[in-house]
Amino acid sequence: MRDKLRKRYQVQKEVTRNGCFEGEIPLAEARRLAELLHGGESDSTDGQIAIRFEFLRNEYDIPTIKGRLETSLELECQRCLRAMEWPLKLDFKLMIDASDDIVGHSDEDTIYSHDGYIDIMELIEDELLLAIPLVATHEDRACNKNWQLADKKSETPARENPFAVLQQLKTTD
Ligand SMILES: [Zn+2]
Predict the structure, then answer these.
(1) How far is the CA of 118 from the centre of ligand 1 (A)?
(2) How far does residue 115's CA lie from ligand 1's centre (Å)?
(3) Cα 92 from Cα 68, distance rounded (Å)
(4) From ligand 1's centre to the CA of 86, what distance in Å?
């Protein structure tokens, strides 16, 4: 049985009762994400982030949050500057307040609580910001015809003249 989402979770309490949560959060609440989406803060943030997660202890007995989030972001294609739908499924497993020593020995990363509480929105935003490609482009390379032309033009002068080296040898001799 999974509980409805809240904004904040008291880590020790949820780990002890192995709290499980499931629900949806409007994308519009991910404010740090808004500027990376197509059209800034306009209607590209209509969507939802579906999320489910649970609190547990990992093999080092460290409080851990484990879950999956699913959403679809509308990014801006850097080739044609038009909207680009980017569906995303993301599994995460993060320790909470693990020491540097433990983090060094583990494959898992840690997040830090605020006085024993974590904010799920903060976690979601961090995960999404890490996942978004730095340069998003449509799979179809022809989405911007002008761009292709520009590509071809720039190839020509890049080709080196094989005689340039010989020319140099001549003059230094
Ligand atoms: Zn494009």
Answers:
(1) 38
(2) 45
(3) 6
(4) 12
**Cα gap 151→8, rounded to integer Å:** 49
Q: What is the DSSP letter of 92?
A: E
Ligand 1 centroid – CA 158 distance (Å):
25
Q: What residue spans define the domains of the chain?
A: 8-141
Residue type, 122: E
Helix (H, G, I), strand (E, B) or coil at 159: coil
Compute, in angstroms, the gap from residue 73 CA to the centroid of ligand 1: 15
Output the pTM of the full model.
Answer: 0.77
Per-residue pLDDT in tens (0 to 9) along the chain, 173 residues: 688 898 899 999 999 999 999 999 999 888 888 878 886 545 556 789 999 999 999 999 999 999 999 999 999 999 999 999 999 999 999 999 999 999 998 999 999 999 999 999 999 999 999 999 889 999 988 898 887 665 555 555 555 666 666 666 665 55
Cα 36 to middle of ligand 1, angstroms = 15
- State the distance from the centre of ligand 1 to the C-alpha of 77, rounded, in angstroms: 5
Cα gap 88→130, rounded to integer Å: 12
